[in-house]
């Protein structure tokens, strides 16, 4: 029945709804090829057979945890000779196998950092299947993600600028709430001032995403991994290192974004003028102020975001994965929102210190303080809550940012010819 269901699906793609002999042979060859690919991905010892341990280990690498007993039940449905292993002949003849894309489809459906953009590109990069690498679909996904990020950041830019202002100027002596902060920005520079700093925030998406992806792929090779996907701990290490490389390269743009967001009307003519004034007045080192807390912030953000997302994904797959391969829009949005929020919450104090260090030269009477000195100063004058100034507008933008980036991503993806399965 499964084979006929696959064949019927294949027929539905044809214009005439008819199947000639050549098309039938082509279908059988493709189906057997897919089965062979999955069998080889499970048979890691190249023993010509798959055991329960192979199934457990392969799924664990994808973040899906099943017990040995569950894996043995899967094998029993295919094992014909009672050896509790399945060779190629038993595998391809098994009537219980669905079309052979179960493992790659987890990668296809559960993309995370490519789809969701909350303004901070510190997530661990997504995995791409061998098929996506070979067909060039990976760059279409990245392009769609970049376009979605640009639209999402532009829509939520007023909240992002308000967050920066509250991080730098908010204190016990200068109480700034959301409404008063927005009103203050409009009064000082008009409606257009709400988007100050957004230009460079959008421009840096492309180089950062490209550098991060290339670094991630190279680190995977250096780690000696020839698998389609890494394990969770390996992904965290590779993703964090890739993030450090990408952030180190584009960090001057982060400083420019902060300075442009904090500028007064007429202070800078644009991005290039801002860069020239900083270089002339403060020197090259000014472009790397706050670099250390920014790099340290990658670890808790990437780690907690990945752990929470994988936990939510694994929970859903265990409960509903056998009924439906696609998680659906609501599940993806909910998982992305929760994991991003947790990651930001964990790294927020470091992000706040980074922003204040970037802005020290613009704040009247502010002395040049180190990272540890700034932490002590905030704790002494403002208390622990001072480390979370601007957290409210930051959280307010997560849901619209995630939702907008997902919708735009799907539209751009279809325009580029990437079909959703």
UniProtKB/TrEMBL annotation:
GO terms for cellular component: mitochondrial inner membrane. Keywords: Calcium, Membrane, Metal-binding, Mitochondrion, Mitochondrion inner membrane, Repeat, Transmembrane, Transmembrane helix, Transport. GO terms for molecular function: calcium ion binding. It is found in: Mitochondrion inner membrane. It is a multi-pass membrane protein. This is Solute carrier family 25 member 25a. Belongs to the mitochondrial carrier (TC 2.A.29) family. Its main location: mitochondrion. GO terms for biological process: transmembrane transport. Residues 30-65, 66-101 form the EF-hand domain. Solcar repeats lie at residues 136-222, 230-315, 327-415. Signal peptide: none annotated.
């Amino acid at each position: 029945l499964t084979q006929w269901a696959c064949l019927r699906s294949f027929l539905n793609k044809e214009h005439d709804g008819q199947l000639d002999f050549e098309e039938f042979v082509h279908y059988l060859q493709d189906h057997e090829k897919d089965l062979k690919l999955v069998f080889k991905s499970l048979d890691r010892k190249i023993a010509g057979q798959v055991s329960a341990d192979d199934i457990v280990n392969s799924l664990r690498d994808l973040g899906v945890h099943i017990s040995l007993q569950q894996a043995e039940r899967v094998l029993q449905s295919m094992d014909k000779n009672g050896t509790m292993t399945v060779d190629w002949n038993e595998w391809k003849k098994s009537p219980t196998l669905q079309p052979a894309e179960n493992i790659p489809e987890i990668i296809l459906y559960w993309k995370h950092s490519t789809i969701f953009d909350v303004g901070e590109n510190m997530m661990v990069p997504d995995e791409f299947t061998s098929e996506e690498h070979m067909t060039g679909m990976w760059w279409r996904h990245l392009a769609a993600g970049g376009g979605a990020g640009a639209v999402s950041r532009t829509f939520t830019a007023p909240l992002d600028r308000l967050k920066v202002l509250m991080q730098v100027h908010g204190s016990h002596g200068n109480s700034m709430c959301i409404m008063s902060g927005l009103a203050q920005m409009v009064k000082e520079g008009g409606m257009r001032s709400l988007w100050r700093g957004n230009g460079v925030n959008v421009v840096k998406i492309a180089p950062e995403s490209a550098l991060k992806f290339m670094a991630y792929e190279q680190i995977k090779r250096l780690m000696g991994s020839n698998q389609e996907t890494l394990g969770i701990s390996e992904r965290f290490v590779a993703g964090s290192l890739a993030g450090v490389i990408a952030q180190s390269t584009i960090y001057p743009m982060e400083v420019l974004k902060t300075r442009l967001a904090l500028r007064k009307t007429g202070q800078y003519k644009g991005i290039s003028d801002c860069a020239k004034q900083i270089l002339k007045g403060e020197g090259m080192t000014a472009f790397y102020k706050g670099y250390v807390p920014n790099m340290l912030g990658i670890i808790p953000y990437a780690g907690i975001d990945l752990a929470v997302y994988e936990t939510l994904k694994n929970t859903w797959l265990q409960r509903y994965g056998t009924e439906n391969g696609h998680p659906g829009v609501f599940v993806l949005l909910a998982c992305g929102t929760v994991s991003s929020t947790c990651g930001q919450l964990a790294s927020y104090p470091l992000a706040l210190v980074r922003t204040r260090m970037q802005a020290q030269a613009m704040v009247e009477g502010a002395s040049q303080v180190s990272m540890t000195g700034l932490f002590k100063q905030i704790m002494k004058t403002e208390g622990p809550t001072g480390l979370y100034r601007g957290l409210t507008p930051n959280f307010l933008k997560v849901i619209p940012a995630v939702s907008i980036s997902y919708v735009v991503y799907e539209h751009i993806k279809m325009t580029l010819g990437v079909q959703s399965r």
